């Protein structure tokens, strides 16, 4: 079996997932994991598929031939790094929106070798105060032996500077 990762983007309209799924299944591929979303009028995402080695070229030709529907880039899949035990942690962030929040949070986490598994963000209008709110959920993996209090302190220091409410889950 070959593991492939497909990155997809196209103008949002009905039938995009179906067309991609048809191309995968029609070539003996198995759709294993995906994150797909509509963002700013575009449909975008990433899909992990497994396909018998003898069908890989056909699957690649089929998904990259969806011109007019989706632009698809195919990447060789791999195994996640196995560099020791990690603890799963969820960080929820809510506060006033401004440029730089994701950059500052991700930098603080990387200083502790914390890996971001999944990041979901959005902005919305603040109900009573006006302006925009920024919301994020980060699913992260913390290496064994990492001082969680230090990670929390660094993220909370940024959160305080950004006027962000912070909630750690999974501790």
Automatic annotation (TrEMBL):
<dbReference type="InterPro" id="IPR002912">
    <property type="entry name" value="ACT_dom"/>
</dbReference>
<dbReference type="InterPro" id="IPR016867">
    <property type="entry name" value="GcvR"/>
</dbReference>
<protein>
    <submittedName>
        <fullName>Amino acid-binding ACT protein</fullName>
    </submittedName>
</protein>
<dbReference type="Pfam" id="PF13740">
    <property type="entry name" value="ACT_6"/>
</dbReference>
<dbReference type="InterPro" id="IPR045865">
    <property type="entry name" value="ACT-like_dom_sf"/>
</dbReference>
<feature type="domain" description="ACT">
    <location>
        <begin position="90"/>
        <end position="169"/>
    </location>
</feature>
<dbReference type="InterPro" id="IPR050990">
    <property type="entry name" value="UPF0237/GcvR_regulator"/>
</dbReference>
